[in-house]
Predict the structure of protein-tyrosine-phosphatase.
Amino acid sequence: MALIDRVPGDVNLYIGGMFTLRRRDALQQANITHVLSVLRLPLDQNLFSPFKQHMVVEVDDVDDENLLEHFPATNRFIQNGLDSGGGVLVHCAMGKSRSATCVMAYLMQKHNISPAQALSHVRQARSICEPNEGFMKQLELYGQMQMPDNVEDTPAYQRWVYLREVELSRACGQAPEAEKIRFEDEHVTDASADFELRCRKCRRPLATSQYLISHGSATPVIEEETEETPAVSPSRNCAHYFLDPLSWMRPELEQGKTEGRLECPKCHTNVGKYAWQGMQCSCSEWMLPAISLAKGRVDEVRKSVAEIRRPPGTAAAPPHPSRQNL
């Protein structure tokens, strides 16, 4: 039986716990030159003196710890160690959750595989590997993001961080800090949409379909349209459209209130409400956070491609001078 656990494959990648570091002969035989420590415990630096490079990622083994932000750096460290011709040991306290997560992230990027496939592969080396639920969700998000070299610039990651901040604020009974609210229309570059929502009173565009959050039976059904007829039939069981924060909501959402109402920025009609602590839709689904437009206060309208690609609230281009007098 091997004294240290080698991940199957043609590279010298190993996984273990703290006790693995005391198996000096086995580590030397495996030509371990790089060690990645993924834990927050005080470390005896004498244990790492035999190795060329040592990297520490200080995280706890808890669901809400952000290990995702470290994946690019840990992947580079592992790859650099392997490229140098040496062996790499990734360890945490027990060699079960944190170390497994980092090895899985590396395998996912290296071989373009899913979290489930990566976990199955790691378990061939160390059967007790079991990332906690939060880390597994982060690995799933990492896969959905296509394992980028820079996760922090990825919209999906930024949105995930924003939702974590909302959840933390909710747990404290507070609204998110103003500078941490993510106004989605300021970040999304793809402005394509199937339809838009207009204020029923003044017809001011308030949102387009790509900012809606699907829930329950709230998925709209596209129907035939006329110029003034809604292009999408309202879902029968839901009285609200839930959506991401949009820039026209900024004056209200940055006040630090946990809940309030949303007014059309043009005619100041009450068009919806928000509750950072969450609220239950009429379809019985609980939404968190809850930022909504009331279906009775807005219309769904399918527009031309040129109009839909125009950001909500911006004016249409003026008519051509040659057509003004027609």
